[in-house]
Design goal:
Layout: H1 19-40, H2 50-65, H3 78-86, H4 94-106, H5 121-133, H6 135-140, H7 147-167, H8 170-186, H9 190-214, H10 219-238, H11 243-266, H12 279-301, H13 311-325, H14 327-342, H15 348-367, H16 377-403, H17 407-431, H18 452-465, E1 471-474, H19 502-509, E2 513-516, H20 522-525, E3 532-536, H21 540-543, E4 550-556, E5 563-569, H22 570-576
Helix pairs in contact: 1-4, 1-5, 2-3, 2-19, 3-4, 4-7, 5-16, 7-8, 7-16, 8-11, 9-15, 10-11, 11-12, 13-15, 14-16, 15-16, 16-17, 18-19, 18-22
Length: about 575
């Protein structure tokens, strides 16, 4: 399908408006169903990551106690509230913990329909497919972190704002505010999204002014014309209400919606349930859910020490992740940006999203505190739009070859599209539930090996059948002097983090734990040992002779050479009906 000029505000009019538009909509609905299937299929096959285990453990504690306090280190509360509620009706498993993230991310391809005045039928379908199948987007939307959540909500907010501008329907603007509020409730880097969008908008408007200057229109005249046009739209939309009152009321309403959702998500529990007991209580809850949460965020994430890292090393790490995780999308994005920008009347949407992705590459290495592949998720998401244009360009190239009976052109287009599709399929096959060191460019380094998962299933089964202490953790990395300090955050000692993601599995099984430091004599420590003993692999030689009657299994605990050994009493396994 080809584009035609003519629609105000777009530079080009999408042909996705009549029967072709209906075909695109039905295709996007089908793609969204595919997106849901590929995100839910085998969702529990990869063992929990270190970070998933940390968030999951505190969700289980919140689920049990009903007590919640926002902690920036755990990120936004959206997933905590949703999972805590979900665990009232389904078991706390890896699948169900990841389920809300997968479902929200699965809906992103459908938001492409909101951009239909700027993209034609082929581009809309290509965008839906890229948002569904890009390996980096797919991997981290099957991951119980909030990156996919904040990305999905922020992208939806952007698409809703575009549609609100196209149709002049204020309710779409309110829907965008709701989506943006959920983005802020998912993860703090929603603020980075706003900054990147602002940076892209400045670049796009500068591009607009340069184009005006090339037509010998002064910058001041162009700005004055744009302001007048914007005010004219406000006057038209306000109807009989004074435009200033309409605009002020709309902004106030949007702020009220945003703040209401923010308070509901960030306010502490159980205090929020007594918010209406009196004016003082109400003010305290609102303050805790807004200013209090902002202060916690500033104290935890905006201090200079937290951002003290080599910038260019982080840029290199992100670019490496993009090249390994999303090479096809990147190549298509470069093609789409070039074709749209230099092939005629450049579309603002394509230019804007390309700038958005570029600004994100520059901004995220400043904003993030660790080198983690999931940061690249936020670059790939906006670049999917110019990538869709690039993919559609190849399709139209092949169509013209068919029309002209030019077999060479058809062959080249088919080869490039097939290579792109094959690259996506191959990458997804490689990274699907991967926990392997050779995939370190996409898989974050704190990922345990998948072969630990069946061993932990044995540990859980034994713990459920055993009475008394279930697990002994040996070594300084695992030792916590007071296990009861783990009932409420923060945990009672940094060594607890060395156990992750094990606490998630222990907590959901109701396991009773004890631990000893490395200085403890192995013989003394294992006297009357519980049915499960876990240690770093380096302690295996000292512990194994003391644990007669125990089976041992050794597994990767981090990608970069860290291993643990799990000893399980054979008699306890027999009673539980399991085996290593």
């Amino acid at each position: 399908m080809h584009r035609a000029a003519g629609e105000a505000g777009t530079g080009r009019q999408s042909a996705a408006t009549d029967d072709a538009g209906k075909r695109a909509l039905f295709a996007l609905i089908g793609i969204t169903l595919l997106s849901l299937v590929v995100r839910l299929w085998g969702l529990s096959d990869r063992i929990f990551h270190w970070d998933e285990g940390r968030v999951g453990y505190w969700i289980l504690r919140y689920h049990e106690t009903g007590q919640f306090q926002y902690r920036p280190i755990i990120h936004g509360p959206f997933i905590q509230h949703v999972d805590a509620l979900l665990f009232h009706v389904v078991p706390a498993t890896d699948f169900w913990a990841r389920f809300p993230v997968a479902v929200v991310a699965a809906g992103v391809p459908l938001t492409a329909w909101l951009l239909r005045r700027h993209l034609d039928e082929i581009e809309l379908v290509a965008l839906g497919l890229l948002l569904t199948l890009d390996p980096l987007l797919l991997y981290y939307s099957r991951f119980m972190r909030s990156d996919a959540l904040v990305g999905a909500f922020a992208f939806a907010a952007f698409a809703l704002l575009v549609r609100a501008y196209d149709t002049r329907r204020p309710w779409l603007g309110y829907a965008a505010v709701v989506s943006l509020a959920f983005a802020f409730g998912s993860k703090e880097n929603a603020l980075v999204y706003v900054l990147c969008l602002g940076g892209a908008a400045v670049l796009l408007y500068d591009h607009h002014l340069v184009q005006a200057a090339s037509r010998e229109v002064s910058v001041l005249e162009r700005v004055r014309t744009d302001l007048a046009r914007t005010w004219g739209w406000v006057e038209e939309a306000s109807g009989r209400v004074h435009p200033a009152l309409w605009l002020g009321g709309g902004l106030a309403g949007a702020l009220l919606v945003f703040m209401t959702i923010t308070v509901l998500l960030y306010a502490p529990r159980p205090e929020i349930w007594s918010a209406l007991d009196g004016p003082g209580t109400f003010v305290n809850v609102v303050e805790a859910g807004t200013l209090g949460a902002a202060e916690r965020f500033a104290d935890g994430w905006l201090d200079a020490g937290h951002r003290d890292h080599p910038y260019f090393a982080f840029v290199h790490d992100m670019l490496e992740t993009l090249v390994y995780g999303s090479p096809v999308l990147l190549l298509f994005a470069l093609l789409g940006f070039a074709v749209d920008g230099y092939g005629g009347d450049a579309r603002g949407l394509v230019t804007f999203t390309a700038y958005w992705g570029a600004v994100s590459v520059i901004g995220y290495p400043v904003a993030t505190d660790i080198q983690a592949p999931w940061a690249a998720f936020h670059v790939v998401l906006p670049l999917a739009v110019p990538a869709a244009v690039g993919a559609a360009t190849l399709v139209r190239f092949g169509e013209r070859g068919v029309q002209k009976d030019d077999r060479a052109v058809v062959a080249v287009a088919a080869l490039l599209l097939t290579a792109g599709a094959g690259g996506v399929v191959a990458a997804n096959a490689d990274y699907w539930n991967s926990a392997a060191e050779e995939d370190r460019q996409v898989v974050q380094w704190a990922q345990p090996g998948n072969d630990l998962q069946p061993t932990l299933a044995v540990v859980e089964a034994v713990a459920r059948e055993n009475t008394g202490t279930d697990v002994l953790l040996y070594g300084d990395q695992f030792h916590v002097a007071n296990e009861s300090s783990l009932d409420q955050p923060p945990p009672g000692g940094p060594s607890w983090h060395g156990r992750l993601p094990l606490p998630w599995y222990f907590e959901r099984a109701g396991a009773e734990l004890t631990s000893v430091p490395s200085s403890a004599d192995p013989g003394d420590a294992t006297t009357d040992a519980p049915p499960v003993v876990i240690a770093k692999a380096k302690h295996r030689g000292a512990l194994e002779p003391q644990l007669d009657g125990y089976a041992a299994a050794e597994h990767p605990f981090k990608l970069w050479g860290e291993r643990i050994v799990v000893f399980v009493d054979r008699g306890a396994m027999n009673e539980a009906g399991v085996s290593l």
